[in-house]
Every structure is written in C-alpha cells, then in structure tokens.
Amino acid sequence: MALIALDADGVLLDYHAAYRDAWSRAFGYLPSLRDPHAYWPIDRWDVEKLLGPRLAHFRSHFNEEFWSSIPPCKGAIEACQRLRAAGYELVCVSAIEDQFLAARTKNIQDCGFPVDRVYATHGTAGPISPKAETLAKLSPVAFVDDYLPYMRGLPADIHAALVVREPNGSPNTGDELRIVQSQHKDLDAFSTWWLANT
Fold first, then answer.
1. Which among 96, 167, 115 has a CA at the least distance from the CA of 4?
2. CA 193/CA 198 separation, integer angstroms
C-alpha cells in the first residue's frame, strides 16, 4: 500500500484556533481577530508580544491538554478519508517534542483521522528539514506540509506538496518554491488534485 505523509499543524489541525484557546486559558479572555490573512497566530490574533514571566506563563499552557485537543482543519478529515478510500496509508510527521508525541497521537485519533502512525521530529528548520531523515526512511509517495523550510532536502522521489495558506507573513514565498512539486490551499484541495492526477 502506497504511503502519504502529512504534517499536523496547519494541514491536519487548526493551530490558529488552538493558540487562541491557549491564550484564553492563560489570560482569561479570547483575543479578537486582527488579520484573517496572517500566517502566524501572533499576527492573526489581537495579542501582545510577550516577554519574561508573562511569556513563560503563556508557554506553560502548551502542555498535554493543549497538544491533545487541537481541532481539525476544515475539510481535513474528509480529505484523509478520501485518500484512505483510494488505497493510501496515511502517517503524520510532525515537528513536535517527543514528550508530546502521545498527546499529538491521541488528538489525531480523537478527531477521527484515519492516520495509522504519528512521528515526532525536532522543529529546527536549517539547511535540511528536520523531517527529511524520517521521510527518507518512510519513503512516502507524497508529503504535505504548510511550511516551506520543512521541504528542504527531501528525497527527490517524494512528491513535495505545499499548503499555501494565509499569505501575510508567510514563509512560503521566493525562489525556494522551486523545491515543491505542487501547491494547494489546504489538504482538501491536495486530496482532490492528487486523486485526479495519479
């Protein structure tokens, strides 16, 4: 069975919504929308840039509860179901700390994604993607991510599909776009395109 590898945040799971909920738990209010086209949640929501103890307090809310309760992106579950029905095995390759791998796996399972396994990699984007080694071992036919630097150094036989979501402040621009083979607005659009073209 051919394998497709998927990123979590921004592809399967709505990190923007989860960030807003974490802010609410930390500071007691839901921030309003500042820029619906912002790539990064700190720019999307009307929140202050934190330093020192307030930043540490906010980060403390990115815990097991946070990583096990992120809602799915719109259409992502259905997209995965279509890929599975077409005969593909699905795995998630996520740049998350090992200590939260179980929470991430539970989150994906609880949402109802037909994803067989979840892999954690470190999150530092250098000249080579931190996901490249895991993807080389898995050898999927395609990898879908929403962060262009995570496409660096992938084996040439893996179709690199980039989700080019909100454009403001996006890292998904410039000459480096040449390293991806296709671009899509979300996972739903990828699955429709992939099944029509393979």
1. 115
2. 9
Q: Tell me: the pLDDT tens digits for 161-193? A: 999 999 999 999 999 999 999 999 999 999 999
Q: Could you give the angle at which helices 76-85 and 187-197 cross, rounded to 10 degrees?
A: 20
**Phi, psi for residue 169 in degrees, rounded to 5:** 75, 10
Residues forming a β-bridge with 191: none
pLDDT digits (tens, 9 = 90+) for 26-62: 999 999 999 999 999 999 999 999 999 999 999 999 9
Question: Model's pTM, two decimal places?
Answer: 0.95
